[in-house]
Amino acid sequence: MTVRTEPIPGATGTSVPVARAARWGRWLAGAIALLVAGWLAYLVVDNPNLHWDQVAGYLFDPRILDGVWVTIEISVLATALGLVLGVAIAVLRLSQNPVLSGLATLYIWFFRGTPVLVQLIFWYNLAFLFPELVLKIPFTAIGLKWDTNQVMTGFTSAMLGLGLNLAAYFAETVRAGIQAVDRGQTEAAYALGMTPAKRMRVIVLPQALRIIIPPTGNEFISMLKTTSLVYVVAGHDLMTNASQIYKTNNLIMELLIVASLWYMLMTAVATFLQGRLERRFGSEAVRLVRSGGLSARLLPKAAA
Amino acid sequence: MNAREAGPERRQDRRQDTRPGTRTDPRPDTRGPGAAPGEPVVLARDVRMGYGGVQVLNGVDFTVAPGEVSCVIGPSGSGKSTFLRCLNGLEPVLGGSLRVLGEEVGHTLRDGRYHPWTPKHFAAFRRNIGMVFQRFNLFAHQSALDNVACGPVHVLGLAPAKAREQAMEQLERVGLAAHAHKRPHQLSGGQQQRVAIARALAMNPALMLFDEPTSALDPELVDEVLEVMRGLAADGMTMVVVTHEIGFAGEVGDWLAFFADGVVVEHGRPAELLADPRHERTRAFLSSVRAGKTPA
């Protein structure tokens, strides 16, 4: 808020100073809030049952650092899988073909309708349904065969489970992005002689993705923390490794604090990157959505 | 427009009179492979169209011969834009016959029946028809140059370097070579519309459609767009122009049609129709436009 500090000229030609407004209510509310927050922090920090030396000791434990690295790996790979698959499902969802769009809707419903935890355990235990994974040319012996339990490690089932789940959510984001692209773009593409597929690939998707990119940062930040669920399938991520340590030494609170500090650091870095992403694409996204609308009519005047 | 035989000849005469030095040789026949000799570029007979219980076109008869400029005026909601969009298949024709560039739009006659076109057939058909929209509809993520090169590269399969070279020539033609690398939002409305015209011309179309090309422009930007269209007409381009610019229609149009309630109420030579309209509705519309009111 801008407050006037420059003196106001008085009637006699002298300048009269401006007093600062007293905001007692604001001071009081701030003080109470600070007091409550400080008291809660004090209860935790000064707790005799909490061993801060152990927190510091485990913060850079090799197992914790390994876990951090695995968490980053799973997050990046699962997000990549989710984004690529999500675009494909969104395009199918918008297809004129009722079977394709119906199946895409079913996929989205299924993966949004079941808990991630259930999906993770399902993939981890896939061997109960298919003891072997076979990839071969039908009616021949040519092909490849894997033992399901060797393929579906904690890491791969985590990546699959989280990636397929994100794809369902992301497909809806992409669909909104595609539908936000001005209808005139499609008409211009058709008028030039493009087929529907070419219009999607050359004209609509490049614009839709610019609209979608900023929210993907959010998906990634959310993914960083969802990976902690992986500890049910022993994915050796940060949470799994932290839990394995506290199961042996019973320093539960200390190791949760260690894990939380790392999660917060990763989130802070991701938030910083997201901010840059939004600055890079955000303003452009606004332009794309409203092209042909009010802003497009106002902008040329500003530019001219 | 049954006097269409007289159109091109009259047009040639006028060009020689008014624009010495412009091309006077007859335009090569670009009516497409399916056209019978002497068939008009556009031949609409009793074209009907509607959606959701609303009848938009109630039997439109309309003819455009090669090299002619046909202007279409009428109140909003009269179906003139819908009819224009039928010409390149952006809207479906639901009754009557619409032949454009020698093809029945949307259907092909085979084994005694008309079969609906595939999206691919629509795409191939539209390559020969340029369209300019009221709101420009430039591809927002591409530079002016890439907008113009887009069709040749992605539709005709031209090498990008070659297409950009030709695109630059098209931009020079509309006087925008200096702005080739700007994005649409960095251009004024008039400049955007000129890029849109260049984009359509880059496909070397046999027919150009204009859907109220100056209606979204600030008044001081209208002339630069009309000037480009005048040049096109002088070069012998076949054009159908839906417009509110009565002056432009009178000056450049070979024919003028007045649309109301989904039919052509009146058509004729622009000078005669504008000076002495026969129908009351035409008279009312023209006087309201001349009074500067928004045509309604």
Give the SSE map.
The complex is a heterodimer of chains A (304) and B (296).
Chain A: E1 8-9, E2 15-16, H1 24-45, H2 52-59, H3 62-93, H4 98-113, H5 116-124, E3 132-136, E4 143-147, H6 148-151, H7 154-180, H8 183-192, H9 196-226, H10 238-249, H11 252-289, H12 294-303
Antiparallel strand pairs in A: 1-2, 3-4
Chain B: H1 7-18, E1 42-51, E2 54-64, E3 69-73, H2 80-87, E4 95-100, E5 103-104, E6 107-110, E7 113-116, H3 119-126, E8 129-132, H4 144-154, H5 160-173, H6 189-201, E9 207-211, H7 222-234, E10 239-242, H8 246-252, E11 255-260, E12 263-268, H9 270-275, H10 280-290
Helix pairs in contact in B: 4-5, 4-6, 5-6, 6-7
- How many β-strand stretches of chain A? 4
Helix-and-strand structural type of chain B: alpha/beta
% residues in beta strands of chain B: 15-25%
Global mean pLDDT of chain A: 86
Low-confidence stretches of chain A: 290-304
How would you describe what is shown here?
The complex is a heterodimer of chains A (304) and B (296). Chain A has helices at 24-45, 52-59, 62-93, 98-113, 116-124, 148-151, 154-180, 183-192, 196-226, 238-249, 252-289, 294-303, and strands spanning 8-9, 15-16, 132-136, 143-147. By secondary structure, chain A is mostly helical. Chain A folds into 2 domains: 1-46, no CATH class; 51-303, Orthogonal Bundle (MetI-like fold). Residues 290-304 of chain A have low confidence and may be disordered. Chain B is globular, with a radius of gyration of 19 Å. Chain B contains 10 helices and 12 strands. Chain B starts with 6 loop residues before the first helix and ends in a 6-residue tail after the last helix. Helices cover 35% and strands 23% of the residues of chain B. Classes of the chains: A mainly alpha (304), B alpha/beta (296). The A-B interface holds A 182, 184-185, 187-196, 198, 202-203, 206-207, 210, 287-288, 291-292, 296-297, 299-301, 303-304 and B 88, 90, 119-120, 122-127, 129-131, 133, 135-141, 150-151, 154-155, 184-189, 191-192, 196, 199-200, 203, 216, 218.
